[in-house]
Amino acid sequence: MKLFTALCLVLCFAALGSYPWTVGSPPEKSATRAVKQGYVNRSIIHLSTVCLALIGAGVGSALILRKAREEYRVTAKKNLEELVLEANRQREKNDAAG
């Protein structure tokens, strides 16, 4: 999942950096409708790629965070159980000695 998230971020930054080469400069006002439509299509595809990469990175980050939170919760519960058991042992030891 970390690899997927990192790849989405790299794709996003690469797409943002390659904008001038992938989309090109805007057509002249006197350009034909087909040329203008081609520019709009390239712009939409580029923007969609960036948006999908950001959404993928966000979803990946959320899944990584959920997994880390679950691991933390399990570890905290285990530590608390160990603490309670140790406290009970100490109390029994003190009761037996006292």
Indicate the radius of gyration in whole angstroms.
Answer: 28 Å
Strand content: under 5%
Run of helices and strands: HHH
Counted beta strands? 0
Count of discrete domains: 1
Q: How much helix is in the residues?
A: over 70%
User: What's the total helix number?
Assistant: 3
End-to-end C-alpha gap: 55 Å
Largest sheet: none
Mean pLDDT: 91
Would you kindly provide a written description of the structure presented here, covering whatever features stand out?
The chain has 98 residues and is mainly alpha-helical. It has one domain. Helices cover 87% and strands 0% of the residues. It is built from three helices and no strands. The longest helix is centred in the middle third of the chain and has 65 residues, at 33-97.
Question: Summary?
Answer:
The protein has 98 residues and is mainly α.
